[in-house]
Structure formats: C-alpha cells, structure tokens
Amino acid sequence: MFLGKVIGNVWATKKYEAIRNFKLMIVQPINSENSSAGSPLIAVDTVGSGPGETILYITASEAVIPLPVDMAPVNASIVGIVDSINTE
Predict the structure, then answer these.
(1) 16-38 pLDDT, tens digit each
(2) Model's pTM, two decimal places?
(3) SS (H, E, C) the chain
(4) I want to staple 23 with a disulfide (CB 3.0 to 4.6 A). Which of 11, 45, 69, 84 is the partner?
(5) Is 83 left (phi over 0), alpha (psi -120 to 50) or beta?
C-alpha cells in the first residue's frame, strides 16, 4: 500500500464495463511527511474519496482485488481514506 493525495478526477464518457460505477481519480503519491513522492497516476476509487483527501492505494495485479469482478484493466485502486498520520 502507498500513500497518496487525490488532486483531481477524470471524466470518462465510456469505461470498461467492470469499472462503470466507479470514479477515476488523479492521485499524487506522497511520503509520510506529505511531500510529493513521484508522478501522478490514475486510480479507481473504491471508497468514495474526494479531491484534497489523503488516501491509501494499491497497484499492480492487486489493484483489481477490491473490485466486484475477477478481471479488469486496472493498475491502481484507492482502498482507504487516511484520517491522520503520526510520525516520531
């Protein structure tokens, strides 16, 4: 799992049938200090996140696990909304 911040959304008039009911969000990967940690990516939102929220996302073949299908062309999925981050 990785930390990210939702920085926008993608409007798609046509989607693959398995992800038709899910939003596509633009996610900026971040580190625990809330600093940018890579290039933005597109992720399927499975938890109802919105712009400005800190989230947890997964990538690769595991990204399809939270979806209600066995197979979908998904490379990243948002799986949690972060309430707070505590570092020592």
Answers:
(1) 888 888 999 999 999 988 899 99
(2) 0.88
(3) CEEEEEEEEECCCCCCHHHCCCEEEEEEEECCCCCECCCCEEEEECCCCCCCCEEEEEEHHHHHCCCCCCCCCCCEEEEEECCCCCCC
(4) 45
(5) alpha
